[in-house]
Amino acid sequence: MEGGSREPFGLRAVGSHCSLSEMDDLDLTRALDKPRLKIERKRSFDERSMSELSRHDGLHDSSYSPRGRSVLDTPLSSARNSFEPHPMMAEAWEALRRSMVFFRGQPVGTLAAVDNTTDEVLNYDQVFVRDFVPSALAFLMNGEPDIVKHFLLKTLQLQGWEKRVDRFKLGEGVMPASFKVLHDPIRETDNIVADFGESAIGRVAPVDSGFWWIILLRAYTKSTGDLTLSETPECQKGMKLILSLCLAEGFDTFPTLLCADGCSMIDRRMGVYGYPIEIQALFFMALRSALSMLKPDGDGRECIEKIVKRLHALSFHMRQYFWLDNQQLNDIYRYKTEEYSHTAVNKFNVMPDSIPEWVFDFMPLRGGYFVGNVGPAHMDFRWFALGNCVSILSSLATPDQSMAIMDLLEHRWEELVGEMPLKICYPCLEGHEWRIVTGCDPKNTRWSYHNGGSWPVLLWQLTAACIKTGRPQIARRAVDLIEARLHRDCWPEYYDGKVGRYVGKQARKYQTWSIAGYLVAKMLLEDPSHIGMISLEEDKLMKPVIKRSASWPQL
Ligand code: GLC
């Protein structure tokens, strides 16, 4: 039942102090002590997008006309990039609209799947916060921001609920994993039930939901120019509550966020507990997004100060300890162990014997990536798609690291993309390791689902990363693969197999984020200036760390 104590929001119709893009470009310290500038949003966003785009060779050279479609192209791809949209686009829009959920007449989200081919609904008939993100971006890019605004406000209300698992009360800031609108046809009323982890398989709270909420609030603001939403006391409070869960002082010795297994897109036990890259990258992006929206008044100022400090420490930690390339791999391979005191090189006491064999073959001479996890005597060398793409989008990765991530992707196309973009992680766990790490999970068998399965939804993140790094041609290759199969296979949730050839064993059909992810990728390629919604430029103060490794020549 719907509950919670918050008042409906009276949105102030006031002008903005400062454009978001303006704030993004401010140095972190300046954000603390300079008054905001009064600049008209729309203009500065367009200008910045264009300057961003012109900096990337690939984009500049390859035919993008300023606000839209490609005009010059190679004959091979000219059909694709002509003014004629692919027929799949219309199908996708129809399917996306069919998934829309209404609450008392207003659109508030999209269902996870509208699969009429199975009776086994589980919780796919709910609006998932993370699943709604590509839907929201598609609507924003299409000039339909209302559903996004209603979603942001509805989930904010849900955040205000008291949340419990058995007798244990969850933190105030926790955002739901999903919610469901229940329609009572007799009384003609709508009510909401929400899940904060208390019903979820494994009973884990979704750490990513709050981060996606903040990232989406920024995307909405950036796309519409409507600062009145993010500036409401309710939204300001919502952001602070989410972040206070992460910025509280405790026993931590690292700036990364310690989490339980299954607290994000991979919502089952998959050995992603500790400091998983997906959460760290989203955390970083949410911190930077919040910094561009928080007002420096009252407790806002204190929160901003904490964010600034955390961003410095987090970017250093991630760039230094999570980054892996050929040189770094060689260094770890030669690590001494049992070092004590500040002079230790192998700070986490990683045993070189724990480096899996596959990494040595997988790692190209040119290229690199952020590894899956780093903790005491623990390095998870697996490659994860979402964490690496979000690292590029948020500029957690330095420009050189972003290029290296794309180099690796190109180099290992067969393994990471194969026949269906994009592997959720690489490689899979098998045999004894699968038994120990997943607890014998029959849904996560090798090369399936979260265990090396291929997820079409990841196409939008890949495309956005390609555009940000000036390599749209990589995204086009991936889109071609999707267009060859996704519609024919009825938009599955995921594919199985070493190259992603088979529709996933238990995959839903008409999975909304597969549909929306495709639309977002297409719209991004068509109008790359949309990238500003979901990308943050590098902050000048978070200078790249000087690293021993330099496996690629000057880029
Ligand atoms: C699965 C996925 C999760 C997604 C949900 C709804 O549980 O692992 O990431 O949010 O389905 O699609």
From TrEMBL:
Reactions accelerated catalytically: Hydrolysis of terminal non-reducing beta-D-fructofuranoside residues in beta-D-fructofuranosides
Keywords: Carbohydrate metabolism, Glycosidase, Hydrolase
Listed Basic and acidic residues bias regions: 43-60
One Pfam short name: Glyco_hydro_100
One function term, GO molecular function aspect: endo-alpha-N-acetylgalactosaminidase activity
Entry-linked InterPro entries: 6-hairpin_glycosidase_sf, 6hp_glycosidase-like_sf, Glyco_hydro_100
Region (Disordered), start-end ranges: 43-78
Record-given protein name: Alkaline/neutral invertase
